[in-house]
Design a protein that fits this description.
This is NUDIX hydrolase. The protein is α+β, with helices and mostly antiparallel strands. The protein has 2 domains: 32 residues, no CATH class; 138 residues, Nucleoside Triphosphate Pyrophosphohydrolase, CATH 3.90.79. 20% of the residues lie in helices and 35% in strands. The strands form 4 sheets. Strands 7-4-10-9 form a 4-stranded mixed β-sheet. A 3-stranded antiparallel β-sheet has the order 1-2-3, with no helix packed on it.
Length: 189
């Protein structure tokens, strides 16, 4: 099957910083004309659920302007061009929490919004997390770190109170690993 069955008739860059957004006029496989707006760059983004030796999760409340709300999230961020995924996780945890971690457990990557961008998200579980310094936030970040027992974090997930999809999926992927070790209850019917 043809991987790119649509013909690009026209392409314009609408924005380039902080992310590139393009408009393409397309002819689809059925001959229909379509205006499509998206982010074409394939950026890599890491997400990590940091877990302490006390079986607590280090999470953040982050203001997200499009929602006009503070959302509960796991720390996350873009991977620099020459940076490994693991190095990016460790850097983001230092920046957003002031935390250091031991072992990293990587889960399957996913495309969060393939209809709008080509970003690839990489979820991790970060073990032996401990806060060792103050967070080093960027100018536009409004982040409040906090700590919760793992069971409480999963209660919030089960109640639908974790509204950030990438955070929810990171917690979802980590749950069987944590449950196999007796750190959280496996989800029940």
């Amino acid at each position: 099957m043809d991987e790119a069955p649509w013909e690009i008739l026209e392409r314009r860059t609408l924005a380039d910083d902080p992310v590139e957004i393009v408009h393409e006029r397309l002819r689809t496989h059925t001959g229909a004309l379509l205006d499509y707006y998206y982010q074409p760059r394939r950026i890599r983004v890491v997400f990590a659920l940091p877990v302490t030796e006390h079986r607590t999760a280090l999470l953040i409340r982050q203001y997200r302007h499009p929602t006009r709300r503070r959302l509960i999230e796991v720390p996350a961020g873009k991977v620099d061009p020459e940076e490994s995924l693991e190095a990016a996780v460790r850097r983001e945890l230092r920046e957003e929490l002031g935390a250091e971690v031991g072992e990293l457990v990587r889960f399957p990557a996913f495309y969060p919004q393939p209809s709008f961008n080509a970003a690839v998200f990489y979820p991790f579980l970060a073990l032996e997390a401990r806060v060792t310094a103050e967070p080093e936030l960027e100018g536009g970040e409004l982040i409040e770190p906090f700590e919760l027992p793992l069971e409480e974090a999963y209660r919030l997930l089960d109640e639908g109170r974790i509204e950030d999809a990438s955070t929810a999926l990171t917690l979802f992927y980590a749950r069987p690993w944590l449950a196999a070790r007796g750190w959280v209850r496996a989800p029940g019917p």
